[in-house]
Amino acid sequence: MELFSMLAVVLWLGNISFSVIDNENHVEVDSNEGLANAAKLLGCSVPQLVIALSTRKIQAGKENIVQRLTLTQAIDARDALAKSIYAHLFDWIVEQINHSLGTGRQRTRRSISILDIYGFESFNKNGFEQFCINYANERLQQHFNRHLFKLEQEEYLDDGIDWVSVEFVDNTDCLSLFEKKPLGLLSLLDEESTFPKATDLSFANKLKQHLSGNPGFKGEQDGAFKICHYAGEVSYDTTGFLEKNRDPLHTESIQLLFSCKSDLPKDFASVMIAYSQNKSSLSCHLLVDSQKQSVVNKFKAQLFKLMQQLENTSPHFIRCIQPNNKQRPRQFEHDLVLHQLKCCGVFEVVRISRAGYPTRMTHQQFAERYGFLLSHSVASQNPLSISVAVLQQFSIPPEMYQVGYTKLFLRTGQVAALENAKNRMLHGALRIQRNFRGLHTRREYYTLKKGATALQSFVRGEKARFRFDYLFKRWRAAVLIQKYTRRRLAATMFTDQLKNIVVLQSVMRGCLARKKFKCLQEEKESKVINSKVRRDVRNNISQVRLCHEMNGEYPRQPVVTELEGRVSKAEALLRDKEEENAMLKQQLEQYENKWSEYETKMKVMEEAWKKQLSSLQLSLVAAKKSLAADDMVTRAARTDTTPTHAQYDSEDTMSTGTHTP
Fold first, then answer.
1. Domains and CATH numbers, the chain
2. With bands split at pLDDT 50, 70 and 90, how would you rate the model's confidence at 649?
3. Helix (H/G/I), strand (E/B), else coil: 219
4. For residue 308, how far is the Cα from the chain centroid?
5. Which residues fall within 8 angstroms of residue 185, CB to CB, at 6 or more apart?
């Protein structure tokens, strides 16, 4: 925003006007929109800007006298302030751009710069600006001539080749007219600018007085003069030369910039007094020192600095030709174009290019670049002999090249044949290298592939063997665990079944024994009861008979009958008991038969279990033998040493206890 504000200040300063207030042509600043906007953008008050533009302080002894400016002086002061702001603003922008691009740092080694040079200006009225511009063009034209004409022809002569010098227009006399001391144009202008009472007319008369004998200078009437430039004669009007060369920026203007609120005007003021350490003290001595250098001297110093930079570079020139003065497309003015070509020295450049030798190389460079194209070896291996042999081999005519002391000079188009042959040779060499490198790379690839395959096979075999050993150990361990587990399970099952059978046998036998014992006891009891009943019956009968016999009486028939009935009942009961005993005997016999059958079945089952156990033991023995055989086969098949497997032996027989019920 400050940048655009300063640009607006320059524009608004141009709109400030002045009014004459007395007969001595003193002026005052008109109060208008331009004055208010310029003061606002600068950051100062309107009275400060008015004082800076319309008055000047003059130191007379120890007193300061304020003097009003005339109309011409006020306009010059206004324009000087605007030009100073614009110039410092331009320098500030360039500095910011260079800072952002990083120019001037250590890593900046190479650069490509583009210089848009001035064009020769010749108007109906040419002033101080055209004078400076055309002087700069003369200096740049001399650099162009020196680079394309003088240096090239001097190189031909120094290297000892046959060369006829091409004449061209040299502007050394014109530059001497400008820069000669103490009677050059620039020196006389600076000298006249130092006189307070000097005028533009007195400057013109001084030029006529001192330079009338110079062929490049022509004095004219009314303060005008002509200079014969490289591009032609240009007439200059000396009006304003001295004032523009002084281009004074008075103390009031610098104080005004210091008093502004914006930062950029303060920076511009500090630059104007050459970066004085005490910026607050604006002594007249510092201000006078900062203004000693005239515009022409500043311009000349900047131009010489530019020329020094150009001398340290490898320049390439682009000449822009204006087709017409009307700035219209597709219009071509022959006379204008021809004049520009003559002024720019293009015809001389074309003449030298056609007659000269644009391609030049040292003998060493030529031999290194094209020496390998020789189809046969040269006796002398020095670069000159090799270069000449290459040129003769390709049948290049002698008039198309010249051999100098240190360099070989070739005309236009002669290097093309050498470059074509070089390219063909390089392409052939590249093709051979490509095929050879391809073959070499393929061989290396196949070798690496074979080695990688062998390494992979070895690694994979080692990993497979290691994996096989690991799995084989696990398999043997699993088989061994299964063997002992199955053996343990079978033994546990057999023991449990045997215990269950023994318990069942003991229970069944105990039950049968108890039943048999009970039957025998009941039979015994029934026999005892029957014997007791019979004995009791007999005793009773005997007692009755004895009683009757003793009493001499016989028992009556009913009593005997009753007794007989009791006997018959007892006998019947006895028979029932006997029958019941017989049935119990039959049941006992049946139980004994069933028990014998059960024992037979248990014996058969025991024999079957024993057979199964023996078959399991036999299968375990066979498995162990097969494992041993597989282990022997594996060891025989393996090419490397494998870890020794631990052999696990197990009992092949299992002792079981039998319990006799």
1. 1-98 (1.20.120.720)
2. very low
3. strand
4. 41
5. 177, 178, 207, 211, 227
